[in-house]
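Reopening this one. Same input as before:
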Amino acid sequence: MRIGLYGGSFDPIHHGHLILAREAMEQLSLDRVVFIPAFVSPFKQESKPAPAALRLEMVRAAIAGEPGFDCSDLEILRKGPSYSIDTVQTFRQKFPDATIHYLIGDDNLPLLHKWHEIDLLRELVTFVVLSRSAIQAPDGMPVIKRSVDISSTDIRNRIACGRSIRYLLPMSVSLLIDNNGLYLNE
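Same output, byte for byte:
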């Protein structure tokens, strides 16, 4: 089995995440991509994301009915900073014979060397860079490239300013944001 683990804040999840995940699934012949919303990103501990339960609900709504896409609440249930090594080791125990690809946005590359237990993590997974820009990935890292100019930060800012977010994310996610009054005070 070939599994892609896709961790992140997903605050909120948007079409850019989904398009790149599907592209990775097809280009790498992955059997499934598992979206794993972080409880708290170790590098974003001072920021205040939307509540973890709502981000999880948004991910589930965004991938509902998508073949090969799954969602895990592992990091949210674990609480505290979400270290990828802990998540990968859990998946390794559940799927000992699987090939695991760890999908990361190109915005993670500058801090990748600071990830908790990065050397062990590199032994356990193949990192795959999901790129929406022209950034150079380190040698040996596959790159899934697709020009998608959508970001969670821009979506949050648009909501705070009263601008439209239509077409940037799934309607089911937009409804959850509206119903819960998310990002109005960013």
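So the earlier flakiness isn't reproducible anymore. For the record, The chain has seven helices and six strands.
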